[in-house]
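sorry to bug you again but im stuck and you know this stuff better than me. below you get a single protein, a line of residues and a line of whole numbers that encode the local backbone shape. mainly i need to know what kind of three dimensional shape the backbone takes. anything you notice is useful, everything is just below:

***
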Amino acid sequence: MAEPEFEQARKELVSTLESSTLFEKNPEYKKALEVVSIPERIIQFRVVWENDKGECQVNKGYRVQFNSALGPYKGGLRLHPTVNLSVLKFLGFEQIFKNALTGLNMGGGKGGADFDPKGKSDNEIRKFCVAFMRELSKHIGADTDVPAGDIGVGGREIGWLFGTYRAERNRWEGVLTGKGGSWGGSLIRPEATGYGLIYYVEHMIQYATGGKESFAGKKVAISGSGNVAQYAALKVIELGGTVVSLSDSKGALIATDDNCFTPEVIHNIAALKIARKSLTDLENHPFKYIEGARPWKEVGKVDIALPCATQNEVSADEAEALIACGAKFIAEGSNMGCTQGAIDAFEAHRKANAGNAIWYGPGKAANAGGVAVSGLEMAQNSQRLKWTSEEVDQKLKGIMKACFENCLETAKEYITPAEGEFPSLVAGANVAGFKKVAAAMQDQGDWW
């Protein structure tokens, strides 16, 4: 069976490992790559539920438990009609190395179902969640596998899933992250992926400019309008930047003239998304709406581009358009947001233009803030503690700083940059994440 998304993710990792000196220095790691590319376990099950008309409905449910060398499997649950094993294997594979880069004890996994929440009543979504968790509960636990939310699974769905797990297993434990604040959730968790992305890019800007510049005065194009995009946009505005775009699956909103996105507009968009409405329902706004478009060719001159919607949302020609518009930084808030062609364009420009190039930050590092705070939620649950927003935010900042520095220093060591050239953060992230997991697997006898 063809698995294009998984093969793309694996090839992206393999190509950067092979172009580094890792296999020269450690030829035995080729065997680790072979082993880590196969999930430890794939669980596939049917989900039978009843719609509001009393009719029997059935969907396919999955959990890919990819690698547990560093800790319990950790990764989201996605409810979307496009969900299949290829998508979940790609997401789970990326999650292994992303989780390794946080420095926390978490393995990699991903799950979900081909259920479409759009057009369903609250009651139907609840019934689906109950039926889904009745089966999934047999395979997860606080020290085994700790899912979180993803596309189609927000705080409300986590509540229904958690309640079903508690009833089925007769135990309260930190089995899911993204929980409500009064029953085990962590402060800053909803904001964490978007905030963490901005903290990561902040380090990119400071390194590239020798500490002379920040987000202040920068024009930032963002795609998506969900959780990640909203909080990334709010943090950009807080740090003095200007947000010039948001988008959804139907089209893009582009700022014109001096009209930029304000916190008030972003809060209005958040309310639309909770109601499962599209950007076409946004009223009384000064923006240009372009149906069927992504922002990258529409925004004109920008300093920073942040894809925050879904996989493969920046193509090779869109990458060239961003370069032509003078963008200096691009980092993924979504998983595998750039196609391989786009990554190749960014990396070629980086090599050819030294310190004046666009610099690319891969999702497995740049968007690791969400799963990092999920790890902090697990720690709080284990200790029966609750940290303040300030404590969690400080820990998140520290994790993203360490993640950036790890990518940077690993790139310098294994893919020596030319004089004046920015180190390859994509190669640094891949080598650093892979090395950590491979070493743990070797210690535990998973390969030798």
Summary: DSSP finds 15 helices and twelve strands in the chain. Residues 37-172 form a domain with the Rossmann fold fold (CATH 3.40.50.10860).
